[in-house]
Amino acid sequence: MTTGPGTLDDGRRAGSALPPGGQRRTLPLAGIPKPVARARAFVAAALEDWAWSATSPGVDRDVAEDVVLLVAELVANAMLHAGGPLALVLDASRTRLRIEVSDADPGLPSPRRPHQPAQPGGHGLLIVQRTSDRWGTQRHDRGKSVWAEFDTGRLIPGR
Fold it and tell me: Which of 17, 49, 61, 96 is most exposed, with the fewest beta carbons within 10 Å of its own?
């Protein structure tokens, strides 16, 4: 079978590997070694399963790579500023991918103002702002979650 751009080998449209009702995946991160690397591998595997990876047909490679970068930034920020991450949650639907990283610190982060591009550090939330479609924070009984969302139309153009 020949396939065109945006189709998989079995003829399905790119991104159609996601279950019809969407899917939520959680990776506990509290106390594990190398949480940034594990989080990156976890999100890369999920994107591959959902046919949303940088190598999936019809997927915008740059946006898929931005998703992995954003996860690394959120987990690294939790490591550096909040005593370590508790969990990473990926909540995928046909219209959006929501990423949440929770930690035990109830203090809400804010981007460094003014942004100083020539200075080391302080770029994590700027990366989150510039790569995601929406982002924010939410306090909960164990601390807070920092979340970001990507519209799937950016991952799979023309969908």
Answer: 61
